[in-house]
Amino acid sequence: MSMFYVLTNPLTLWPDAYGCEPTIERPDVKHSTLGWVLLVSGLFFVMLYIPCFIAIIQKKSSAPVYQLMFVLAIFDILSLSINSICTGIFDILGVSFCQYPLLIYFLGATAGGSWMSGCLTCVLLAIERCVEINPQFPLEFLFRKYFFTGVRILMVMWTVYVFGFVKPVLFSIEYSCWFFDPMIGKDPLLYHSYPHTINNFAVGISTTALYLYISYRLIFKFGYSTSMWLYKTKRQILFQAITLCIFHTAAAFIYEYMQFIEVTPKIIIASQFIWQWSNGAVCIAYLVFNRTIRNLVLKMFIPKSIRKHYGLYIGFDEHLAAEEAGTISGNVPVMNAAGVKIKYDNFMC
Q1: Relative to the CA of 3, which of 145, 150, 157, 344 has its CA 20 to 30 Å away?
Q2: Interval 14-38: pLDDT, tens
Q3: How far is CA 283 from the centre of its chain?
Q4: Which residues, 6+ apart, have CB-to-CB distance to 197 below 8 Å?
């Protein structure tokens, strides 16, 4: 059963799989400490991500990479709202599936859809990064102007499918985690999601392969450079690639592992935080490694009048304009000014 069934049957869950019997024993469980940790950390990530999301919008770039970053931000914020904020609230209050089945079903469909849609976007971003590193990359044609329109259409179709026609994950207060099985005493085989399994293995394998390719190109094909700026650029690209790859791959594989093999509660809790970080690490990577996003965020929080008063020029454009106006010399502090521009827009910029 999927969201399509619920929406076409007056907001009613399929009773054979999701109906809670009146005699079912509802767990009297709360995870207050864990709930507060998830809630606070989730709010922290969302508060970091929203300025990055606004910066991506302000960029007003038609480049495929920014369109993908825009879409990924939406899915990541949706995921964080559920896998961290809602999960934290449910843990604190001790909410179980049978108390609010329809609400948890909707949230689970949104979480699962956001994860699977975000996975496709992450794979496309990884391919785009390979194209940035190597313009002769075999899948370069995906990002040509007219072909990318078709890619966007396929992304919309995939999003509709995973939100509307794939079984959702459901919150379990016993384990403080989201599973397909609501654990209400019915056959677990009713709930297995094959599209989700295929998606997780595909994203785990493909992103690992693509980021290994990026690392190989940067380390061995570009070779050694005496340029400190280029060295730092390559190092930061590698750190960003490794950060994003580790959490997405780990989240994909560990959730599939839990579907088939019984695991300890510690692994289940760890999987919840890995899922959280697979979304939250993206905004951290933007703020640490992406100069364009970081500079736009700094400009949001530091008014131009204050920057001008203290001689803080954020970005190469402000620094260059100030130099041309004769208002600064080389000894005045500059924030993130870069003297060289290379086509690593989605990494550094």
Answers
A1: 150
A2: 888 888 887 777 778 889 999 999 9
A3: 8
A4: 256, 259
